[in-house]
Specification:
The structure is a homodimer of 584-residue chains. By secondary structure, chain A is α+β, with helices and mostly antiparallel strands. Chain A folds into 3 domains: 12-104, Nucleic acid-binding proteins (OB fold (Dihydrolipoamide Acetyltransferase, E2P)); 138-272 and 422-549, Bira Bifunctional Protein, Domain 2 (BirA Bifunctional Protein, domain 2), CATH 3.30.930.10; 291-412, GAD-like domain (Gyrase A, domain 2, 2-Layer Sandwich), CATH 3.30.1360.30. In chain A, 29% of the residues lie in helices and 24% in strands. The first copy, chain A, has an 8-stranded mixed β-sheet with strand order 6-9-10-22-21-20-17-11, sandwiched between helices. In chain A, helix 4 crosses helix 16. Chain A starts with 17 loop residues before the first strand and ends with a strand. Chains A, B: ATP binds at residues 220-222, 229, 479, 531-534.
């Protein structure tokens, strides 16, 4: 038996008992006649003591030889500690070591195994197994486990069945790019890894499985933006015989349950906002509503003077930045430069200070008088002491720019409190979105999303105006997940494919099995998927999902620890009937 | 709202209440003036009634138009039923329909959606979404969910953390064949899908994660034997600071918990048997111990006469078949033919009837007298009324043949009771096994298994004799899972790779990250993996895992429902820098 207790377990009540502990040497403090060592495992740290009076020569020698991260097993007696450490649960005791065995040595680790480490991101990823020994990473993984368990408990208690869907499926080149898997037994053919179990969960609904969920890996071969992973985890759900309202209620319940169980936070009913309102009020389909700064549209009160920039703009829109009237000229110039950065792309920014004394001072005083500016204050909800920031131009672009500014200012003003949770349902998404490059419409969610009742006809006349039974759950400005009511009628699905530019042959080759299935009594159904990585990160009060994944990949899709992907044996390629087009 | 109740819910207590139900039409019985229909969903069946006196003309017309598997929503009143059906929980009531809406029609399904269907395996797989509507399949999937939930609950309660390990890893061409995934972002390089998370779970141990589990998909590109799947699910576990005994106790506890919670069966401590004993007593490393028929070795009592076949044999071995002394000559001849089948491969079979009167009658009475045969009876444990079946020849082959005969006879005699559960730990497996084709030794489990203490030296002199800290859990003659104590010392791991025929360069290229990790304080660790598909099937009292997988693949690795694998767009291949070696 390697241990009778773990390193986080001993208390004063264990005094004088004989214990066996195993773990890693965190630190050694050698005072010559007495040596202390901190022994660490997953559960905590226990102080070990060796001294010349009570420990044998042999044990003292071993103690002196200990290095950081050595793995040792000790036997000893739990003693009251003279200088207590109130910062750790075991801080009142120490263990006088009577036997010690080095189970494994360690060479010097490439970074310190401390909460604040000296290791940079790259080195920590290469030695991820050492990084995981650090409390912040270890605790994130344990936190993730707890969230996943609560999800399963909640859904299972509500009669949802977790069904495993296959990983080796078929490539459907629409949507994002698939990872493909060459088949050896069916040469020249390929499986694809699922981007999501979408069609399978719909088939489970056709199969009567009624309430399905799965915590499941999904795969997308995308050029990785920051904080995306080629493999990621979804909480994937589907329900039959439901309307949108039923689905929102179940998953609002799940989210509330998680916040309650994991964070101890009780939330009331989640607010809802249409996509159109979200875009108008926040310039964003995933608004962070922990703070205000709602958009105030100023066309009516800013296009009546000789200011050509506003007069030529499709949209003039502003926000009131709380307490920022006191910004210096230099601070404001910095803001103007910030919105002009290519990542944001505004041409400039107009501002108006709403002074504490009720007067206004703007960058456009030449054109607008106090009365005009007072109307801007009303439109943006500015109060004395606020700074009104105004952008103008093409409506969509300007909203996006102002949204970026709003988020940046909230960050600077400390309004994005990580311990506050502000969920929001965004509903009534457009069914389609225009691809500006090709001029073609794509499904905004996916081709299985149903339009709102009665809107099929609009598809022919004004496709961009068709709204869908589609919804996202937004938490603190992050899209946690989304879903929709699906099409369950073969004819409607086939019309939808046509509108998305599929020939009947393409639709049949790729999704024939689904349309076949719809002929045999497909029930009305819908569902949603939450991104587990993101959900866990936000619940954990952090921004990057990588910190909540045991073995993440870097931005080039590489696992730098195991050095994958890698070249394979030419024999393997040959068995797959493949060769490299251009030799690498 | 599509339903106020489900179709398995209504009882006499609901009488006279107004309900809304949705589901599939199972059957319609049209008596002209009255029509009954069974409405089915995941939860059960409720009888609907329509009659000319109480239902409108319009509703009667719709009722008459209903076909099998139509999806309908009805409103109605719960009534006491005149002819009760005691076979279903809702059998005391029926619902008089006041409103009905056809939600979706169905064409005639290709097989009947009944417990006993008229559909063969192939058609049921092609229309798996219809097969899943059938109770046996649906119940298997729900059963699987329950088992998986209990596994998670049990392990989580014991402080195990479920950690997701990556699916896109690196190919290691030893073991079985990997599925590979070409990387677009790293051209000419490939990921591999994991055959198991073996190295990652060991790295988690190095990372201090101490008690890990995961219910996880694994992948093997093997030529599929019956009842194998290219993707399968493991309950994968690993623990640090443990000895074999600790691991056996935890997973014996898990198995006992499952049998208790799922089957209501309380089991005592599981018996254990060494690999050598299992081979000697049952000719099999996964013996079914629900019944006896242990092997009796007869060399000492059968090689002293002039019977050359026995005298030339390395091993003479028999079993006592209970109550089979009464077999006719014809029945015994059939047995002899059975062991001679190429799948079994015995040259012949000697038998001795131990008659109820205590006398013996054998096929070798010319050579052996009553006294000899009485010794055979003692060696095989035969009692009056039994039949002793004896095979001889090369020891290993003969044991395998007799094991096959033992299982066949048990099946015929009804000794393999599906409601009885007889677990068995088989321990002390050999570390290596000889590949008879190449004459080389392979790791019997995998290259990370540690030899028994003090046996490293034997590797040079008698590799086949080295025993490992490796164990399997056997349940009713099936291997449920297995595992081992791992090597955690870099030097020993490197020696092991050498003995398995890796050059130092190969070992470094493929497992360098693991050996590197062992330098930084790797703790002693070990673990095991259960096959979830098999475990669920056996707990469910069935033999084929396919029946417990929602969307299984066939023996050619094809998903016949979605028709995968399939050719992909040439553009996709080009992006991956691949071409087909031989055009298909």
């Amino acid at each position: 038996m390697y241990r009778s207790h773990n390193c986080g377990e001993l208390r004063e009540t264990h005094q004088n008992s004989e214990v066996t502990l195993s773990g890693w040497v965190q630190t050694v403090r050698d005072k010559g006649f007495v040596i202390w060592a901190d022994l660490r495992d997953r559960y905590g740290i226990t102080q070990l003591i060796f001294d010349e009076e009570r420990s044998s020569e042999e044990i003292m020698d071993i103690a002196r030889s200990l290095g950081r991260e050595f793995v040792v097993q000790i036997k000893g007696t739990v003693l009251d500690r003279s200088s207590k450490n109130p910062n750790i649960p075991t801080g009142n005791v120490e263990v006088l070591v009577s036997e010690i065995k080095i189970l494994n040595k360690s060479i010097t680790p490439p970074f310190t195994i401390e909460d604040q480490t000296d290791g940079g991101e790259d080195i920590r990823m290469k030695y991820r197994y050492l990084d995981i020994r650090r409390n912040p990473v270890k605790n994130n993984l344990i936190f993730r486990h707890k969230v996943a368990m609560e999800v399963r408990k909640y859904l299972s208690d509500q009669d949802f069945i977790e069904v495993e869907t296959p990983y080796l499926i078929k490539s459907t080149p629409e949507g994002a790019r698939d990872f493909v898997v060459p088949s050896r037994m069916n040469q020249g053919q390929f499986y694809a890894l699922p981007q999501s179990p979408q069609t399978f969960k719909q088939l489970l609904m056709v199969g009567g499985m009624d309430k399905y969920f799965q915590i499941v890996k999904c795969f997308r071969d995308e050029d990785l933006r920051a904080d995306r992973q080629p493999e990621f985890t979804q909480i994937d759900c589907e329900m039959a015989f439901v309307e949108q309202e039923d689905i929102l209620n179940v998953f609002e319940g799940l989210t509330r349950h998680l916040l309650q169980e994991i964070k101890g936070i009780t939330l009331e009913k989640f607010p809802r906002m249409t996509y159109d309102d979200a875009m108008r009020k926040y310039g964003n389909d995933k608004p962070d509503i922990r703070f205000g700064m709602e958009f105030g549209e100023l066309n009516a009160v800013a296009q009546h003077k000789d200011f050509g920039i506003f007069n030529d703009a499709e949209l003039v829109v502003g926000i009131a930045v709380p307490g920022a009237a006191a910004y210096t000229r230099k601070e404001i110039d910095a803001l103007v430069n910030w919105v002009r950065r290519p990542q944001v792309g505004a041409k400039g920014m107009v501002y108006a200070k709403y002074n504490e004394d009720g007067s206004f001072k703007s960058s456009v005083d030449k054109f607008f008088d106090q009365e005009d500016l007072a109307k801007w204050a009303i439109a943006t909800g500015a109060k004395p002491g606020d700074l009104i920031c105004v952008l103008s131009g093409d409506a969509n672009k300007t909203r996006t720019q102002l949204s970026a500014l709003r988020m940046e200012l909230a960050e600077r003003l400390g309004l994005r409190n990580k311990e506050e949770f502000a969920p929001l349902w965004v509903i009534d998404f457009p069914l389609l979105e225009l691809d500006e490059e090709t001029g073609r419409f794509h499904a905004m969610h996916h081709p299985f999303t149903s339009p709102k009742p009665g809107q099929m006809a609009l598809l022919d006349t004004d496709p961009g105006a068709v709204k869908a039974n589609a919804y996202d759950l937004v938490l603190n400005g992050n899209e946690i997940g989304g879903g929709s009511i699906r099409i369950h009628d073969k004819q409607m699905q086939s019309t939808m494919f046509k509108h998305l530019g599929f020939t009947p042959e393409e639709a049949k080759a790729q999704f024939g099995f689904l349309m076949d299935a719809f002929q045999y009594g497909a029930p009305p159904h819908g569902g949603l998927a939450f991104g587990l990585d993101r959900l866990v990160a936000i619940l954990g009060g952090q921004e990057t999902i990588r910190d909540f994944i045991a073995f993440p990949k870097n931005n080039s899709g590489r696992d730098v620890m195991i050095d994958a992907p890698a070249a394979i044996d030419p024999e393997q390629l040959k068995e797959l009937n493949l060769k490299l087009a251009i030799k690498s």
